[in-house]
Design brief:
Protein name: Nucleotidyltransferase family protein
Organism: Pseudomonas mercuritolerans
CATH topology: Beta Polymerase, domain 2
Strand content: 5-15%
Number of domains: 1
Radius of gyration: 16 Å
Order of helices and strands: HHEHEHEHHEEHEHHE
Shape: globular
Strand order of the largest sheet: 3-2-1-4-5
């Protein structure tokens, strides 16, 4: 089974994640994905042959729409999500504006923005289509995620490498998932 199919199966077997995907889908946000730790942790737990760990501290919802690229719009969506599911902390970011915070050229889509995230294994999103099929966005591939490799993206290999290492330490991934391998520079 290929990695994308395996990821779809893992998501489909998790009723909590499926519930979250249905809630987010019903917002009808353009180019919208639930991403980062929502996906990464599930795969790493599976590969460590253990029950899924608790959901990430916040559920990352990324979307892309240049016509609605304000922080206030994101906040409004977070409030709407909290009203639908108050036991989760939501983090909604329209990627059409995030290039400004990150000092990048404008992104062209949500997937484009993911290539600028710190780790390759984090740059993965999932969503449900109108028919309930799970779609996967992995602009940097799924190989590192399924190989248990923590590798910085190109952006974090040089001038932001210290940020990558600080993030790795603060999140304690190597302690939580001991089979992970850190892929260092060079």
């Amino acid at each position: 089974m290929n990695q994308e199919a395996q990821l779809r199966d893992l998501i489909a077997e998790d009723p909590v994640r499926m519930h979250i995907l249905r809630i987010v889908r019903d917002l009808n946000l353009p180019d919208c994905w639930v991403a980062a730790g929502f996906v990464r942790s599930l795969v790493w737990d599976h590969l460590h042959q253990r029950q899924p760990s608790p959901l990430p501290e916040d559920i990352d919802v990324v979307w892309f729409d240049t016509a609605c690229a304000s922080a206030q719009t994101d906040l409004t969506v977070e409030v709407e999500l909290a009203a639908l599911c108050s036991d989760l902390k939501w983090s909604v970011k329209n990627q059409a504006r995030m290039h400004q915070r990150n000092a990048d050229a404008p992104y062209g889509a949500a997937a484009d923005s993911m290539t600028f995230w710190p780790e390759t294994a984090t740059a993965v999103g999932v969503r449900l289509d109108r028919h309930g099929a799970i779609e996967v966005s992995a602009p940097l591939g799924l190989e590192d995620l399924f190989a248990l490799k923590v590798r910085p993206t190109a952006r974090f290999e040089s001038d932001k490498y210290v940020v990558f290492l600080e993030r790795l330490q603060s999140k304690r991934w190597l302690e939580i998932w001991p089979k992970l391998t850190l892929v260092t520079q060079g």
